[in-house]
Design goal:
By secondary structure, the chain is α/β, with parallel strands linked by helices. It contains 11 helices and 15 strands.
Length: 387
Amino acid sequence: MSAPIYLDHNASTPIDPDVLETVVRVSRDSYANPSSVEHSQGSAAARIVDTARAQIAAQINCKETELVFTAGSTEANNLAILGAFSTLQEAGRPHLITTKIEHPSVLACFDHLEGQGARVTRLGVNEGGQISLDELAEVLTDETGLVSIMAANNETGVLQPILQAGQIAENAGALFHTDFSQASALVPLDLKNSPIHLASFSGHKAYGPKGVGALYRSIRKPRVNLAPVMFGGGQEKGLRAGTLNTPGIAGLGHAFELISKHIKRDREWIGALRDQLERELKETLQVQINGNTQARLPNTMSITINGVVPQALMQKLRNDICFSASSACATEHVETSHVLLAMFGDTPRASNAFRLGLGRQTRRADISQVADLFGQAAAELLLLRSA
């Protein structure tokens, strides 16, 4: 039996074969601790880390010294938001702004800081899934210390105007953080002279290994001062304790180097396949595309099929297609995605949404097959519902 067609790249991309070779080679040959620079093998491992730092810095156009390696973007988000707060609070800027559609690792940080004395404003979004820049400007005050807005939503692929939002925040004297994880492989980023002061990245969203990521922290004016959220041996200039994951970091660096080679083709090729799939789905099904279709990742679509529950669709297609419902399933109940709730409220369109995420290895031949499978499965489910 052939493997299911993988359309869950927003959750995790497959590791690039060349990146995998790098991870395996470094795991096998460079096993020394990169902090053990007093001997030759430790120094060699440290040079591998330095190379990866340079590869990432070159792709996003920042200084190598502005990058901190983490275990992924969840940790990077925690370090950015929690790590910045104590300095901001001491400076009389305890007001923080985020959005209602952020990744849980961002939302949970702001929930936590509310218990530590922060005042948090959570911006809503329109039905297209985007914030209002006018509303952002209105809620900024002299006490606002940090604004955190994701670059691309992980459920809808909708892009936020982060450069404009960052400029508005910077003009008000606030720091600007963006979770760039979902956008890394598909949206060019130039951090030099940008109003972005903190940015989070994750390997497994960009054809790199799982369990490794990075935080960009500006050291130009305004310089971002962070306090560590983990304590130990003082690695990464004291900001991230723990032995560096040399193979993972090497893989992350290689993955980011490959982005520069693939990004133009990926945007065009994957975007064309996504658009073709949307057209073919609309030919046979009553579908609604969720989110601004003019400002979204080229690989992503969030769809609601009228009358079809995504969990039932996933169960029916589990051996044929891998994709995700835009809801969190618990043992006793199903909760509608906070992202879709923010866009559409408690409606069938929100509760019945699911996500398709294409990637580099998606083939043109997959598209018609996926459309046919969805059409057949949805027809069967609608027939059962009407019986």
